[in-house]
Amino acid sequence: MLLSDLAGKEIINLFDGAKLGLVGDADLAISASGAIEAIILTSRSGFSGLWGNNERDRDILVIPWEAIKKVGSEVIIVDMSSRTERINKYSV
């Protein structure tokens, strides 16, 4: 699988049908051998996220490669029912 095969595809959660983001807005966690370990999506949350680049309003969603069920022509289907790792950088 090449990065270009993933670029621009919408990521959809099989568990609840939620749109999680686009691969173009993501980073990849890659092992030393070059295998993709996870897709890391960064999204803005809250009202101020719409207007600025405030790091405090960013959430991170880590999608382990094992959670990916299907890579289609337009979307990537993932199952994040019990594996969701949402991290707010500034949470207490």
UniProtKB/TrEMBL annotation:
Record-linked InterPro entries: PRC_barrel-like_sf, Spore_YlmC/YmxH
Top-level division of the source organism's lineage: Bacteria
UniProt cross-references to SUPFAM superfamilies, sorted A to Z: PRC-barrel domain
Record NCBIfam families: spore_YlmC_YmxH
Name of the featured protein: Sporulation protein, YlmC/YmxH family
The species this protein was found in: Desulfitobacterium chlororespirans DSM 11544
